[in-house]
Amino acid sequence: MSVMAELDNVTKMYGEITALHGVSLEIPKGEVFTLIGPNGSGKTTLLKILACIEKPTKGKVYLNKELVKEGIMAKLRLKTTMVFQKTALFNATVYKNIAYGLKLRGLSNKEANERVRNVLRLVRLEGYGKRPAKKLSGGEQQRVSLARALALGTELLLLDEPTANLDQRSGSIIEAAISQIAQDTNTTIVLATHNLFQVKALSEKVALINNGKLVDVGKTREILDDSKKLADFARVENIFSGISHVTKDGTSIINVGDHMQIEAATRRSGKISVFVRPEDIILSKTKIVSSARNVFEGEIAEILDLGPTVRLRIRAGKQFVVQITKRSFIEMHLNLSSKVFVAFKASSVQTID
Ligand code: ADP
Questions:
Q1: How far from the centroid of its chain's Cα atoms is residue 82's Cα?
Q2: How far is the CA of 160 from the centre of ligand 1 (A)?
Q3: How close is the Cα of 133 to the center of ligand 1, in Å?
Q4: Do β-strands 188-193 and 239-246 pair in parallel, antiparallel, or remain unpaired?
Q5: Which CATH architecture has domain 3-233?
Q6: Residues 6+ apart with CB under 8 A from 277
Q7: Where are the domains of the chain?
Q8: Ligand 1, atom 10: closest residue by C-alpha
């Protein structure tokens, strides 16, 4: 295995706060590596250290076997690109936002134009070049931000929760673009996420991080097999385990405990673990007739305002985490303890492994 980046016993302090504590990690070249962990666990700090934006307080970092030290950080910074969770686009056109870094690197207008066109296609924003970047929706701005990073073609790409709080369409487009880059190029991608679907769909290896410490690292398949560990691991939401029986319709009914049964579009019997993405769950105040095979009544136990979206924890026998737009939240007059129904399709239930 050839190694793109290595952290050797890295600790990072911000004043009194230990953001990372003795982390040792190898990131293989040309693969997608996910970092999964609760808010404040140190994911962004780890990415910033890999991006040579932050220096470790203790320990060593190697990029391509080269020790990162004062004096060469600026040079190494050019080999990496980090896309932050909060997009910071310039007040200029989409084209200028993407082409700026390319021109700085000495590309001709012709070369820059071609790269901009290619990356805009990748994030499904063809023809958006002349639009003022700041006027786009949040999801579109995040896609421009990713396109800008992709255009640079650096060998290490660091993505900090690139789909957090985005609309579903933009989230899927970003996931598809990451997958395409991973397939078509030799770029090493390190992706911080809360989203188990992305871990499963995109990454070869995954590291679990909590309180600044590395809890586990391994092949995605091996880590996902241990669903109990993931479920215990805060913020990996909507994981359910139980015994599954295949129905005559060709789906499976899973008894997940607490008198709850979940129907999944899979033909698997026996012990199984499944998860549902928060954005795949529909919330309503009354029981609606729909194609969703899973409908449960519950009440709102927690409300987290994330700006354009709101994340709710619903107690319905088991707990569900649901993400809806702020607008729906307001229009539905929801509050703590409001009675609600959660609904999701059997096809939205994904098996782990
Ligand atoms: P995550 O990305 O997993 O949410 P972070 O790496 O952002 O976690 O943060 C890890 C810890 O370090 C948190 O306690 C956070 O408050 C703290 N932290 C991060 N950046 C700074 C900073 N610039 N100054 C002080 N504390 C910080």
A1: 14
A2: 13
A3: 28
A4: unpaired
A5: 3-Layer(aba) Sandwich (3.40)
A6: 195, 196, 197, 238, 348, 350
A7: 3-233, 239-351
A8: 42
Ligand 1 centre distance from Cα of residue 46 (Å): 10
Ligand 1 centroid to residue 166 C-alpha, Å: 22
What's the angle, vertex CA 92, arms to CA 89 and CA 98, rounded to 5? 60
Instruction: Choose one of 43, 44, 165 to mutate for the ligand 1 pocket test, by most ligand atoms within 8 angstroms of C-beta.
Output: 44
- The pLDDT, as a whole number, for residue 229 is 64
Q: Which residues line ligand 1 (CB under 6 A)?
A: 14, 17, 19, 37, 39-45
Torsion of CA 283, 286, 290, 292, to 10 degrees: 50
Q: For 104, what's the count of Cα atoms within 13 Å in the CB-facing half-sphere?
A: 10
Q: Are 204 and 14 in contact (CB under 8 A)?
A: no
CATH topology of domain 239-351: OB fold (Dihydrolipoamide Acetyltransferase, E2P) (2.40.50)
**Residue nearest atom 6 of ligand 1, based on CA coordinates:** 42
pLDDT score at 76: 86
End-to-end Cα distance, the chain: 24
Residue keyed to tokens 């962004």: 44
**DSSP secondary structure string, 228-259?**
HHHHHSTT--SEEEEEEEE-TTS-EEEEEETT
Relative to the CA of 160, which ligand 1 atom is closest? 2
CB 257 within 8 Å of CB 319: no
Task: Count the residues in the chain.
Answer: 353
**SS3 state at 338:** coil
Residue 176, classed as helix, strand or coil, is helix
Mean pLDDT by 10 residues, the chain (353 residues): 94 96 97 90 96 95 93 87 89 96 93 96 96 94 95 96 83 93 95 84 91 92 71 67 92 92 93 87 90 93 83 90 90 93 94 76
pLDDT for the residue numbered 29: 96
Distance CA 25, CA 217 (A): 8
Q: How many CB atoms within 10 Å of residue 51?
A: 24
Q: 4 C-alpha vs ligand 1 centroid, how far in Å?
A: 24
Residue 270 in 3-state DSSP?
strand
